[in-house]
Amino acid sequence: MDEVQSIEAAVLSFYRGGSEQQKETHKWLQLVQNSPRAWSFCWELMQLNKPSEIQFFGAITLNSKLRSNWAEVPKEAHHELKQKLLETIVVFGNGPKIVLNRLCISLGLFIVHMLRHPTVIEEVTNMFLHEQLGTLSKVTQIEILMAVLEGIPEEVKNIRTQIPRSVVCEELNRNAEFVMQTVVTYLNEKLSHSVVEQHDMNGLINAAKCTGTWVAHGNVHLNDREPMVQTLLKAVHYCYWKEPKDDGCLMPEENELAETALKSLANIISSYATQNAKYSFTIINYMKMFLDVLVPILDAEYKEGNDNENLALMVYALFISTLECFSSAIFAGIVTDSDEVSKVYTRTVDMLIKCTDKPGTYPVDESCSTYAMEFWYMLQEEVLSMDSSEHKKRCLEAIKPVYAHVVKVLVRKSQLPTESSLHKWTDDDLEAFRCYRQDIGDTLLSCHDVLGDLMLDVLSEALDESIMYLSYDPQSTESWTLLEATIHAFCSIAQKIEYTEHQQIVKLLRVLNEIPYEQYNDKLFGMALETVGAYSEWIGDNPKYLPSAITLLVKGLNSTKASQATLGLKDLTSECQKEVVPYALPLLDACRTALQEGHLKNAEMIRLMYTVGNILSVIAYDNIILYLDAMVSPCFEELQAHVQNNDRTEATKARVILRLEMISKLFSSLNIRKPTEHDGSSEKVVLGGQKMATFPGTQGATVGQPVQQPVQPILLILEKTMGLLKTLCTLWIHDETVIDTLCKALQQALANLLDDIKPLLTEMCCLVLSILNTNCVVSAADIAGNFILMFYKDEDSQQLMVQLFTAIMDYNFNQMQLNIDKLSRIADLIETFYAFNTRISKKIPICYSEVQVDCMKLMDYATKCMMLPETGPMKKSVAFITMFVKESTNHPVMMNVVLAQGENIVRSTFLCIGGTALRTQVEIFADIFLALNFRYPPQFIQWMKLLEIPNFPTAFVSASDKEQFMRKVIKERVNKRLVQDYVRKFAALCRNIVEYETK
């Protein structure tokens, strides 16, 4: 079997075989594609008598070679290659389409490589225009030509060419007007006929695409694009109005042409976005054209469930894109003496109000209304950012009625689906609607920025209307949606409401307590609970409304909406912690009952423990002990039972994790020494091993006399349960999830106890050490790091901290050595490890000198880890190297590491910039250059000379570019923004990517 037959068999095996077989075959086929022989066999595969899979493989192989291996084609073979390409295009001119499309791309790639020849685009274009391609029809030749021209600018972004990028850009700009003129002439010629032949549609579609891809080139003013804009609008108008359809739906080809024309129009506008002021008059003219041609289409489609919804979406997208690019030009019409500008602004606002108020429910009946949300944000942003106070005031007054109307529209549009309509909704629809409601909530915040307190008046009216609507038919079970939507609107703006006792909020809270929720869908109750939680801060400023809020939330604990109730209580007890004291004990009793009854879900139980901690923090100490015993003991009793039974089943694991998460949440909020306005300046001292504090004005004590403070409740809990936690840790030491949860609970305890942890410090550190030596989960390293940062300089604890530090380093070094060829497997561990070392480098760098740690290895691994594809390890490694270098000059051990590893650091950094790191992430490596250049300027100059190595870091960057980059970076020691810019541009050169300058 010869090579071609082997390739054909492999291709058929790939497309028709199983997944395992496909994987191996794919690797082999890739090797075959990369070989120089591919230039020969690709043509043999593209024969009409071959199966389409083989033809397609031949076409994509040719694509691949043209894109990546052009250097393998000798100059004298260029003409032959062009002829073969054209001949093969003729062969496949009538299909299969997938092969023809690839051949069109290949011809475009060939043209890019040949751009040194100034007439190459004109020659190829004229060849197609004058029907010089054998037996292909004129229609087919034009269709192919437009596809080829359309792809050229796109291929430039990814192709490896021997022509300098500057020359490529120059040639694209020089040819742009010729291409555009050719395309627009063709479009106008075809669209000037009363009927466009069906066989011309593909050519028209490709031509419309072509205008969008070439518009970024040519250095042409926006006002000179008017003929093209008119032509594309003509295409949309023709497709929609050419003849009435029985079902009202456009044919697929007409729909594609119209949508393509709209996309190209958006591309034209966005290409000039940075020149807002320059084209104010032009953009008003274009907007008028858009409004005249496209709004009648929107009016015709202003109905539920229309068949051309996607076309309407594209029209709205064009308007929004134009507004984003040229907002100030259009918004000048809010208050202006120009009748023309005013009309364009007014018509635009009217059109987008109708878009917001599109008939039907999103997304099952319509999908357009979400597009207008961005406009309402843009408009308020434009007005509120105006400088002139008088002009700003006039504009604000002008748009207030618009926003008041929009608020009522948004409330109506945000109504939830009723039970009877849910059969029409898929899970995707429900998720889309959830996001839509979130967008409405965000838009209502923008409305509030415009309306101020008037917003509450508008919503109060809406509340009255929704209650009235509910009373029209008290027996109806589906009339609740408008009331729920109105409450949702109040909830959405809660963060904007200041402490004033607004009567509208007072009315809202009264209504929320009066609604007979049992008569309606439980979603109404859920929204009410969420809203009470959202107004927690306001209630804290107006505490007389606290009892009614607590009553409603406690009621929610025993309902199907316990999730919203626990969220609301969490917020309420956080924002109103002092104010809740008079109601604390009944509220604790309600929480205890809810926890005991067992109807709460795990997340609700965990969240409720945060509320319990908040309340316990402010009640009398004796009561804290009583309620802790009643509410926390069950958690530890269950854990004790599992430990005694040596039970490690999955069911038990779930219960252990639940109980540990409940304890963790309690630890995060229970703190009797939280600073307040009155004791924020209190000073803690240690007397006779007892924690004491002095508080101004303490009753029964002389000023300045120490007053003994009770032991922190968390410390009491830990003292009683440390033995249990150790046993639990031993039982589950090999289960990362359980150990991680346990460590997080201890972390929360440490965060609240701080120095108060000291009586248990040795025991806790020993527990953490046992974890570090066996299963170094992320949270174990975190808590160990916190211990070290807090207590390393404490003489009594330093030896213990050294043990912790050594354990962390040894475990991570071992894991990295075990996974040296596959470090991505331990990406999370690496991220945590280098985040920890960054903190050590910054806070207590003396560690690296005093503890026996192999810092050379630490830095060497960091240079390897920053080359990983995962963003987390890469960023943390870079941050560590940067901080280590900055601090090293004060510590000889660290300085020796930097001097020894400096060249390795710079080499790895260049490899990341050159291609290892994502291009969007390369700017972070500027931090390493700045740190090295600032602390070690002479050595940095030497290390940078690595760039003198040929083809380093890639073959695409020239020696002069490297020299220029080196000179610029060495010059800058503190200007981070400049060095980031140099790095970004250098990365583009290394990857052979053109960075197009904005017009």
Automatic annotation (TrEMBL):
Main subcellular location of this protein, as a coarse class: nucleus
GO cellular component: cytoplasm; nucleus
Record GO terms (molecular function): small GTPase binding
InterPro entries: ARM-like, ARM-type_fold, Exportin-1/Importin-b-like, Importin-beta_N, Importin_beta-like_NTR, Importin_rep_1, Importin_rep_3
Keywords: Nucleus, Repeat, Transport
Keyword Nucleus: yes
Subunit details: Interacts with UBC9, RAN, RBM8A, eIF-1A and PAX6.
Family (UniProt): Belongs to the importin beta family.
UniProt name for this protein: Importin-13
Native organism: Anopheles farauti
